[in-house]
Specification:
Blueprint: E1 5-16, H1 20-30, E2 48-51, E3 54-61, E4 68-75, H2 78-87, E5 91-92, E6 105-109, E7 115-120
Parallel strand pairs: 1-3, 4-7
Antiparallel strand pairs: 1-4, 2-3, 5-6, 6-7
């Protein structure tokens, strides 16, 4: 039986450092999207915006040459989903970014190299950094 997959709420945009400030200004000032970044946050926080009911995270990533989009899908059975995706030639990419301890999720790459976080639907998504 096929596991159930649904869209997650997070979209992460990985932005090259040299384009980051202009990109941030585009979403914050030009489009004037609702800013969801915690006001009382201490330290460096990843800016995030309401993107039509989804959360758009803007991550500054030194050393990349162009922006990347990372998406989230959720499933009702993480182990079954992992087996199913492996049997359908999806490449696991767990090395791409560490996940918080105890967070039940893993990374895959689509055939076009779009990174996807696959997480359990009953688990709240962590910040995608």
């Amino acid at each position: 039986m096929k596991p159930v997959f649904q869209l997650g709420r997070n979209i992460a945009m990985k932005v090259p450092a040299h384009e980051y400030e202009r990109t941030l200004a585009f979403y914050r000032e030009t489009l004037a999207l609702k800013d969801l970044t915690p006001v009382d946050a201490e330290g460096a926080q990843t800016p995030r915006f309401d993107f039509g009911g989804k959360v758009l995270w803007l991550d500054r990533v030194p050393g990349i040459s162009q922006a990347e989009l990372w998406l989230e899908v959720v499933t009702d059975d993480l182990e079954h989903a992992a087996d199913f995706l492996q049997n359908h030639d999806c490449v696991r990419r767990d090395e791409i970014e560490p996940l918080p301890d105890g967070f039940r999720a893993f990374w895959i790459s689509s055939p076009t190299n779009i990174i996807h976080l696959v997480s359990e639907s009953c688990t709240e998504s962590p910040p995608v950094q």
